[in-house]
Write a structure and sequence with these properties.
about 0% strand; mainly alpha; globular; 2 domains; about 200 residues; all-alpha NTP pyrophosphatase fold; two-stranded antiparallel ribbon
């Protein structure tokens, strides 16, 4: 787990540097992005008592992955050594389960974020537990989204030349298929993922 956490921290730092080379000095309100994502997450889970709703757990998982991007950014901004940061994350994410009331857990987490203007890993882990999301699913989903974002940028996303649909499927669908084929424990997981996406993309050129 430690190596996978270090990989995610490195990837987040790289993506933030792509947005702004001095991103740590920008004073970004990560907490604000997090609580807004919490509201979107709750909409996907369902909270309206006046209509029939079923939790869309796939969309909830995607929102949790988005929140994790912002949480990692907040933690990196602290300037703590990566080994210490990784150990703290591993401790908090491995030892917490959901309370059984997912909506209340979301609200408690969002309230903590707003009050502290920070990121509580244990509270986030409760949300993962509430939808039976494993660390491996978080890792593969996070790395997948991060690598796909880099891939898009490298292939013309900013100038409008990138093709989001290949062989009749959106790139997100290709990403899901490729993730199933790869070894998540490999030290080259992110490089292998990028190359697999590139191979599929070029085959459709």
């Amino acid at each position: 787990m430690k190596e996978q956490i270090l990989t995610m921290l490195a990837l987040q730092d790289s993506m933030n540097q792509r947005v702004h080379p001095q991103w740590r000095a920008q004073g970004n309100a990560w907490y604000r992005a997090i609580w807004v994502e919490c509201a979107e997450l709750l909409d996907h889970y369902g909270w309206k008592w006046w209509k029939k709703q079923e939790p869309d757990t796939e969309q909830v998982a995607l929102e949790l992955i988005d929140i994790w991007h912002f949480g990692l950014s907040h933690m990196l901004e602290s300037g703590k050594p990566l080994d210490l940061l990784s150990a703290e994350i591993e401790r908090d994410i491995a030892s917490t389960a959901g309370s059984g009331d997912f909506r209340a857990d979301v609200e408690d987490f969002a309230a903590n974020v707003l009050q502290s203007k920070g990121f509580n890993v244990a509270g986030f882990a409760r949300l993962m537990g509430g939808v039976n999301m494993s660390f491996e699913q978080l890792y593969s989903g996070y790395v997948g989204k991060n690598v796909l974002n880099f891939f898009r940028q490298d292939h013309g996303y900013k100038d409008g030349t990138y093709r989001k649909t290949w062989h009749g499927k959106e790139d997100n669908e290709h990403l899901v298929e490729v993730l199933v084929e790869l070894d998540l424990t490999s030290s080259r997981f992110k490089e292998d993922l990028y190359e697999a996406l590139k191979l599929r993309y070029l085959q459709t050129a």
